[in-house]
Amino acid sequence: MALNSINTNSGALIALQNLNSTTNELQTVQQRISTGKKVASAKDNGAIWATAKIQSGTADSLNAVKDSLQRGQSTIDVALAAGDTITDLLGKMKEKALAASDTSLNTASFNALKSDFNSLRDQIEKAASNAKFNGVSIADGTTTKLTFLANTDGTGFTVSAKSLNLTGIGLSAAFTFTSAANAKSALATLDKAIGTATNKLSSLGTSSKGLDTHLTFVGKLQDSLNAGVGNLVDADLAKESAKLQSLQTKQQLGIQALSIANSSSSSILSLFR
């Protein structure tokens, strides 16, 4: 038989314990809803929190890899743009040399063609020397290769430089013609230079494609890591919302139960009337 006591109300104590438990659960659910995470700190789940932090750090560090690869893309793109200009200039030089090989030209016309030819030649050197991105070039002959970040462990993606200046394509700063016969013989040299330039541009294009492919992979890897971290720590808000409604109802009932348990002691007064 239960003891009737005004000092100890066991019913109220049980009701209070249940109400406190419900309140704690409600606070947890409210925190998950406000943060969007079921594991917001090491206190929630130390092992999951540590794993998520490590993976999140790896995903964040991939931003540096992406930045490096994008710089590589831009560096190659600038070199390719210069290469397109240089091949166009070589084509125009060939046109001038072919026109100058005509023995029926007068001296003034020949000299005009020669002047245009020399100007085009000088533009090739300028195009190659200006093909820089952020002060770096793989087309001006000043470097042999560039290495960009490829992964978070510091491994690199190496791009071989392709010199597109006059020396790099088999010409010289003094390359010109002085007669119709000389202009005709220059045609073979120009054809060879065009072939050299286009081959180097093809190689740079392959390197650019490789950078594009790897950059796409890094982006997908980063997305996968972020999704994995989300699976570990993110809260299911639909589930938490349903649980919130349930706990709020349970809390109200707990308050009523505690009120009933507290009022039960007052019935003892009737025994003394």
Describe the structure.
This protein is mainly alpha-helical and 273 residues long. The chain has 2 domains: 46-232, f41 fragment of flagellin, N-terminal domain (Up-down Bundle), CATH 1.20.1330; 236-267. Helix content is 68%, strand content 4%. The chain has 5 helices and 2 strands, in the order H-H-H-E-E-H-H. It has helices at 10-35, 46-100, 107-129, 180-233, 237-263, and strands spanning 145-149, 156-160. A hairpin with a 6-residue loop joins strand 1 (145-149) and strand 2 (156-160). The longest helix is centred in the N-terminal third of the chain and has 55 residues, at 46-100. The mean pLDDT is 89.
Which properties best describe this structure?
single chain, 273 residues, mainly alpha, f41 fragment of flagellin, N-terminal domain, 2 domains, two-stranded antiparallel ribbon, 5 helices, 2 strands, 4% strand
Short summary:
This protein is mostly helical. It is 68% helix and 4% strand. The protein folds into two domains: 46-232, f41 fragment of flagellin, N-terminal domain; 236-267.
Quaternary state of the chains:
single chain
Would you give the CATH topology of the largest domain? f41 fragment of flagellin, N-terminal domain
Q: What gyration radius follows from the Cα positions, in whole Å? A: 40 Å
What is the strand tally?
A: 2
Side-by-side strand order of the widest sheet = 1-2
Element-level helix/strand string: HHHEEHH
| General shape | rod-shaped
Ends distance: 23 Å
**Largest beta sheet, briefly?**
2 strands, antiparallel
User: Helical percent range?
Assistant: 55-70%
CATH architecture verdict of the largest domain? Up-down Bundle
Determine and state the CATH class of the largest domain.
Answer: Mainly Alpha
Beta-strand portion reads: under 5%
Uncertain regions spanning at least 5 consecutive residues = none
